[in-house]
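Lecture notes, unit on protein representations.

Consider one protein chain, 657 amino acids long.
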Amino acid sequence: MLFDRVLIANRGEIAVRIARTLRRLGVTAVAVHTPSDAGARHVREADLALEVPSYLDADAIAGAALASGAQAVHPGYGFLAENAAFARACAAAGAAFVGPPAEAIDAMGDKIRAKATVSAAGVPVVPGGAEPDDALEEWRDFPALIKPSAGGGGKGMVLVRSAAELPDALASARRTARAAFGDATLLIERYVDSPRHIEIQVLADSLGGAVHLGERECSLQRRHQKVIEEAPSPFVTPELRARMGAAAVEAARAVGYVGAGTVEFIVDGATGAYHFMEMNTRLQVEHPVTELVTGLDLVELQLRVAAGEPLPFGQDEVRLSGHAVEARVYAEDPSRGFLPTGGRVLLLREPGVPGPAAHPAGSGPLVRTDSGLSEGGVVGSEFDPMLSKVVAWAPDRKAALRALDRALAGTAVLGVVTNVPFLRALTAHPAVRAGELDTGLVERALPELVTDAAAPAGVLAAAGLVFHALPQGDDPWEVTDGWRVGERAWTTWRLASRDGVHEVRVRGLPAESAEVLMDERPVPARLRAEGPEVAVTLGDRTVRYLCARDGDTLWLGHDGRAWAFTRHLIGDPGDRPGAAASGDGVVRSPMPGTVLVVKAQPGDRVSAGQPLIVVEAMKMEHAVTAPCSGVLTDLPVQPGQPVDMDAVLAVVTPEED
């Protein structure tokens, strides 16, 4: 019998997605939240919510399950999803863990033990060595990849191409492994050049039934983090799918697996040879693409298996239909090296339908967005920067990529800088369109994929028109119509954006007839407000922008891109946001976060490039340096202080002044 009440031990888009399946099944959804997350979307979409100190506090969350009367706990992914102790704590609280047995989590959570287990079951593994049995310093088969045994998500992985690099690489990986996972044990594997990362979705019940649901292509990665995933893989043939699927099922059976899991393989893009890499004992971020090509709800199947039900189908009944592609939307700025961003969501546009959503067989394209965002919500530095996932299904791969691109163009998160333009550029890359993928493609193509942060001339003109149209006060003489005896005068707007301070000259009334100076010549201009949009006409061309304001800052969005402009007054410190890279002396925060360390004091003489302040965001430290040599004349921050992106951290008066 299915559960009546389930606690979701997670937050954000996955918690919202799980709650929707629970609602469809008539099951009460219980949310947990930290104090700072009390108003989050996943809390509002649940039937009941309880506060916990942290999403990593296993005892508190197990206690919440007990207090709420939940019969089961769904961990989602991340946080405690692959924590065997948490699975045992749930059982002790009388709640079923919607995941595999704790013993399976233990077996697959240790990469060294996992490789030995699946190898004994006949699954191919990458040749390598592991501590404590092997002396990794003596490894001579290069290139090689060093990995933390207890790790995941690409943390601590180091590529080594020669024996000379090995000692420093081992030391670096060991430090990261100890800091991130509390375990410095390492393994080393032969590195496969131009590999494809292909994973198999498996399902197993407690009665001995086990199937696979085909593969997902996850080769589009940046720094070992997946960016775009698809199902099925454009590389995998039906014969290869059958072999890899059978190997994945054997890997699951080898540890007595129950529930949904993913077996990840490294595949040689030239020969098709595949080797086991690891098993994720949880639902994957990219599970929607499998749902869309199979028509199955994986969360529902997880719940039914956890309740003791058998799988409702066998391997011969699994059918793959069409093609699905998913893009991960992150709060990060590609033009600044993908540093995390943040802010308040002023305006939100998300295309398609919320997940889960299965396609009607043979229909046209379908778009699904799994999201934890809501207008008015704050994206901070406390949690992972992934905001949502945009997924497109179509009868074939070409149509699915096209549908995903249009869906991304219709995505807007005004108030927060995102990676949407980068995702659109990636989906349009010729190699991606051709299906010629490998795990190094994104890094090689970065110069082509990262768009300039500079606002085009038309967008600057549009921003100037919007500022010009805003009421400047109650006095009718303050209306910026440029009226004077003889002819209308020009009004100059100084607008600060991410790439500098720009002057936009406007005259006239934008709602009636105005002019904008572009390339030193007047261009007829008109602006019409249409709800959250503004229609801007420059000459004979009209473009519609989404528009939102936050005090003196104006956000415009169009085709997946977004620009922020702040009215810049003479005397404001610095000529542009992000001025820490310039010689004007203003040091600004490259990301929202918390000041961790202050390394200098007002009055100190500093040198160009000298670290002044360390800002921490999303467990990543970033040293902010002096932009020039001189005297530190202003330091408005202190350790422990939260700061917004582009907040002034310090001012250095250059020596020449």
